[in-house]
Amino acid sequence: MKKQQYTGRLLMATLALAVVAGCGKKNEPEQAPLVEINRDPYPSTYQALPSETTLITNVSILDGLGGQIDNGDVLFKDGKIVQVGQNIPPPEEAKVVDGKGKWVTPGIIDVHSHLGVYATPDGPSHSDGNEATKPVTAQVWAEHSIWPQDPGFRRALAGGVTSLQILPGSANLVGGRSVTVKNLPGRTIQDMKFPEAPYGLKMACGENPKRVYGNKGGPATRMGNVAGYRQAWADAQDYQRKWDKYAEEHKAGKNPTPPKRDLTLDTLAGVLNGDILVHMHCYRADDMGTMLDLMKEFNYQITSFQHAVESYKIADRLATDKVCSAMWADWWGFKMEAYDGIRENIPMVHKAGACAIVHSDSDLGIQRLNQEAAKALGDGQRAGIDISKAEAWQWLSANPAKSLGIFDKTGSLEAGKNADLVLWSADPFSTYAQAERVYIDGGLAFDRQNPASWPVSDFELGQPGEGDVK
Description:
Blueprint: H1 2-27, E1 54-62, E2 68-77, E3 80-85, E4 95-98, E5 103-106, E6 108-113, H2 152-158, E7 161-166, E8 174-182, E9 200-204, H3 207-213, H4 222-251, H5 263-272, E10 277-282, H6 285-298, E11 302-307, H7 315-321, E12 324-327, H8 345-351, E13 356-358, H9 369-382, H10 389-392, H11 398-404, E14 421-424, E15 435-440, E16 443-447
Parallel strand pairs: 1-4, 1-5, 6-7, 9-10, 10-11, 11-12, 12-13
Antiparallel strand pairs: 1-2, 2-3, 5-14, 7-8, 8-9, 14-15, 15-16
Helix pairs in contact: 4-5, 4-6, 8-9
Cofactor: Zn(2+)
Protein name: Amidohydrolase
Organism: Bowmanella denitrificans
């Protein structure tokens, strides 16, 4: 009897606990779903041109990796390069292009362009590159200013440019996000965005920020510039910690409140996470040295210094820290921080084992970047720096692709890569060479022999000389 009473009491107690537990579970709020930031709210809608299997034969080939093949062939199919070499047998369905006496290179990639954000015709309505309202404007994105109808895109295409990075201007310490695009016409910028290319972040050191903000509350000095960067990165680290803590607490089954979203810190934290690449406007060697120390203090990577007229002074450090240097062939002396530039800058950086790039920063220079590279190559050779044409083409394709995080897709003529290439009428380092055919993802984007096929901006329709290519 006593045993039965004990068993009954134990069962009742167990049931009571179950009821209490059930009530508690019922009254506890359900865990809210994890809040995550959309890293790609403006995705690419790019569609490649139709392409056909094509074999270009009997050409001199610069492969973009430093190699040259004479009397070579290039075969591409379904938008990808299939084979590069000699005596490639043509597939039955292939269109064969006899390139006797001509040259083939990877398409040119310009890492510093303002097409679309400073569109032509020039005027206040088209001046959308600088958000010069405060020193740190990491929240703005260049793509939200780009006018796809800018006729400059078509002119650059006729010069052999297949991809380009469009950046904000350089008024600010942190100017905002850049975007990499395919140089094909689009109704919106999303139609031009290079699929899966990482975003960049434009930053600027030296004269520009202190000149713009010296009378607006600062920074007014170079030391003020550096303090501004450091505070921005410190704020970004704090923002990271808040989101990391929120994610950890949510994973532990708690119901934490997500941090307040901050668009400026979203971008800066993206750099610290390694998702966004830093491209930094910087002229003087001492400024670049300070920026290299800054990136080590906050543990991020500067992908490239832009303009960088004094890179030759610290080329060894650039090589060690794996930072590319995007440079002009011969622009210098137009302001104090550009005064110590030399014409041998690009070849000296290359010879030191660093990543050298030829860039434009100009709607005119982008049309003839092959000639800019030729000037730099010639200046180096006259100074006794022995660099071949095949090596020098890396300045226009492979190295830019590396700095933009797209080298796995383009920048060299290798099997499996995008068929972004140019058929030149002559040695592309010649002043007289013209881009006869430009292919993007295997599609014929420009054919000099067929003016009726040249892309024309809607803005140009009805204008005198519409579609002219010089």
